[in-house]
């Protein structure tokens, strides 16, 4: 028996992804959705802005989760694709007067292409070497955006100011509230599409590559194609998140997309649970609110406090929010039986 045949014999077939592995239950999903829809009606604009950023970073974390949790490829360069998406939206809006909603698919397509092209040479790398290559990409992007021949379009070190859109059709909504609901609609659409992707045949192919690349290749999976597509899809979603971020913050500048952002997104993915898409919003909440909590505890040692809090989370729940959700599900099942 050949080595390839032995691999095929020993490797179990890739089963369909269980529903609970990708989404919350219907009841829980409806409760979360209702909370996201109703909360902005009772809070101030600043809180609405924070909730908008929560959804935007949640999209970026979800994109990274598709890449790492879905295909097993590590990336520390998501901030680069986030920056490309943000600048694409800013340039189209401010230089070409394109409607903000139309800039998002353009940002997604451009970032998909950039991610797909970057995934080609990255095929030769894996593990820490791939992470190092994407790390280099994240380090280089802010400097590339400052280049002189791009300054007319990017604004150089000064960046670009982006106009926040008003609510259409005369709707009685503030700019922050309209942008929140617009971002929520985009996020729900991308979330549903991502769940369907990972449940599909292509999603099972990605996860087979994640679990055992040699076995996946032996079973006929085009490893090179699916790995580059995973990079492209992840970069495309991150680009859309970057475009939404540019509109929400109303400003883009190279120093806003440093390696710190890439590491924050990676931390958010780990805290939310690698491979569990609903955890993306939990990871996003962690990277937005926990630094503020740490600063409230000690302004001078906020970084150290944040590190301690992160260590406690990883130590107590090493599988992130997914582990908490499974425990809660088990307790709920026991209560129902009793």
Please tell me about this protein's structure.
- By secondary structure, this protein is mainly α.
- The chain has one domain.
- It is about 75% helix and about 0% strand.
- The protein is built from 16 helices and two strands.
- The chain has helices spanning about 5-10, 20, 25-40, 45-70, 80-95, 100-120, 125-145, 150-155, 175-200, 200-210, 215-220, 225-250, 260-270, 280-295, 300-315, 320-335, and strands at about 160, 250.
- It has a two-stranded antiparallel sheet.
- The relative contact order is 0.17.
Supply Rg: 21 Å
Count of individual helical segments: 16
Specify the overall morphology.
Answer: globular
Number of domains: 1
The percent range for helix content is over 70%
Oligomeric state of the chains present here: single chain
Mean pLDDT: 88
Q: What order do the strands of the largest sheet run in, or round the barrel if closed?
A: 1-2
Secondary-structure element series: HHHHHHHHEHHHHEHHHH
The CA-CA distance between the termini, in Å, is 53 Å
**Beta fraction of the residues?**
under 5%
Which stretches are poorly predicted, pLDDT < 50 over at least 5 residues?
1-21
Number of strands: 2
Largest sheet: 2 strands, antiparallel
Structural class: mainly alpha
């Amino acid at each position: 028996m050949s080595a390839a045949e032995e691999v095929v014999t020993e490797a179990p077939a890739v089963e369909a992804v269980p529903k609970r592995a990708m989404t919350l239950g219907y009841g829980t999903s409806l409760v979360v959705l209702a909370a996201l829809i109703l909360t902005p009606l009772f809070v101030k604009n600043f809180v609405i802005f924070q909730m908008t950023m929560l959804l935007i970073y949640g999209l970026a974390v979800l994109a990274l989760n598709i890449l790492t949790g879905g295909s097993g490829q590590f990336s520390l360069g998501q901030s680069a694709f986030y920056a490309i998406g943000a600048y694409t939206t800013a340039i189209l809006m401010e230089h070409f007067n394109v409607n903000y909603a139309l800039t998002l698919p353009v940002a997604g397509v451009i970032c998909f292409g950039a991610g797909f092209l970057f995934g080609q040479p990255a095929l030769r790398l894996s593990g820490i070497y791939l992470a190092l290559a994407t790390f280099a990409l994240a380090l280089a992007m802010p400097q590339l955006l400052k280049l002189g021949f791009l300054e007319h379009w990017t604004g150089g070190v000064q960046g670009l100011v982006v106009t926040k859109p008003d609510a259409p059709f005369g709707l009685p909504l503030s700019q922050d509230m309209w942008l929140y609901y617009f971002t929520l609609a985009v996020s729900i659409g991308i979330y549903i599409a991502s769940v369907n992707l990972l449940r599909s045949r292509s999603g099972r192919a990605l996860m087979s590559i994640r679990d055992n690349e040699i076995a996946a290749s032996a079973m006929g999976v085009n490893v090179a194609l699916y790995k580059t597509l995973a990079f492209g899809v992840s970069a495309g979603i991150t680009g859309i998140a970057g475009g939404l971020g540019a509109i929400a913050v109303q400003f883009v500048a190279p120093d806003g997309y440093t390696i710190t952002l890439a590491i924050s997104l990676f931390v958010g993915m780990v805290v939310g649970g690698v491979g569990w898409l609903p955890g993306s919003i939990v990871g996003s909440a962690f990277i937005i609110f926990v630094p503020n909590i740490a600063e409230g505890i000690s302004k001078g040692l906020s970084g150290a406090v944040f590190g301690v809090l992160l260590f406690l989370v990883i130590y107590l729940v090493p599988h992130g929010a997914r582990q908490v959700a499974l425990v809660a599900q088990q307790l709920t099942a026991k209560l129902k039986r009793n």
